[in-house]
Amino acid sequence: MLCTWRTSDLRLLLTLIVFLVVECISARGQSLNTTSNSSMQQTASVNGSSTDKRQRKLELPAEANASLSVPVDTKAVFDCPSILLTSLVVTTWQIILRDKLSCTRAYRRDRNETKEGNCTDERITWASRPDENLALQIDPVATTHDGFYMCQMVTPDGNFHRGYHLQVLVPPEVTLLQSKNGTAVCRAAAGKPAAQISWNPEGDCVTEQEHWANGTVTVQSTCRWEDHPLSNVSCSVSHVTGNKSLSLELTQGAQTTANLHFLYIIPCIFIVFVIGGSIWLLKNSGCRKCKLKKTEANPGVEEDEMQPYASYTEKNNPLYDTTNKERCRMLQSEVDGIGLDTL
């Protein structure tokens, strides 16, 4: 019995050993296959990555256009895509402005020469030497420089470009005043783009815009507060270059001011009429007195005028002279007779 148990036990042990050997061999084979597959995958990934890098380098997408806002009278600089200058063949700047011909500035590296066409604005130049920096600059910026600026680069690996939509900003000149009829007027003059005006408190407002040839816009808002007379109002102007707020003390409401003007005008008109009427009455009374005096003085004048005629008649009438002579003789004789009797 003992020998039988030992023999069977040995058989079981040999079976276990064979099974373990087979398992080890199969596991080793799987590990080898896995290692080879992983190495192949790594090699493929390395090759694929290098291929992708080359493909990306050759098929680099062109950079999108950008919007650029620059305040007026400042300096603007436009950069080209970041490319090694050693791989550069030709760089061209294309400038498209409003109501003008397209301007081009080009640089050829192999010859180290620059060319330009239809470029008349001296404020648009290379930022520095093209063989060192291909950027373009505008100094100073004006409202006429609104437009599109694009840098095009030719290299052995492909063509690249970058564009800029330039918008020149002009801050408006803000004023706030009270008009003659009592309304408040807020004005944002010659701004670019157009400003926006708001009031505090809100009233009955009318806003108007006036567009100028250089692209600027003047915005004017006129407000009145008839239902609620106010002593102080404020005007706020919103603009991309900065916001401004102004306050104004209203002397009086529009209706009160109009009433005051009316009250001032009526007394002045009344005084003018009184003075004019007084002068007219005095003049008429003086004329009447003068006429009466002239009427009373006329008879004396007629008598005086008749006296020369009477004297003339007496002097020139012969009958009148004869009568006078006879009277004179008679008187003389009477005098002589009286004198003799007296003696």
TrEMBL record:
The keyword Metal-binding belongs to this UniProt entry's keyword annotation: no
Entry keyword annotation includes Zinc: no
Keywords assigned by UniProt, alphabetized: Disulfide bond, Glycoprotein, Membrane, Receptor, Signal, Transmembrane, Transmembrane helix
Cellular localization per UniProt: Membrane
Compositional bias ranges of the Polar residues kind: 33-50
Signal peptide: 1-29
Sequence ranges assigned to domain Ig-like in this UniProt record: 156-251
Domain of life of the native organism: Eukaryota
Major location category of this protein: membrane
Chain intervals for the UniProt region annotation (Disordered): 33-56
Membrane topology listed for this record: Single-pass membrane protein
Transmembrane domains' residue ranges: 262-282
UniProt similarity note: Belongs to the CD200R family.
The name this protein goes by in its record: Cell surface glycoprotein CD200 receptor 1 isoform X2
Record organism: Equus przewalskii
Lineage of origin: Eukaryota, Metazoa, Chordata, Craniata, Vertebrata
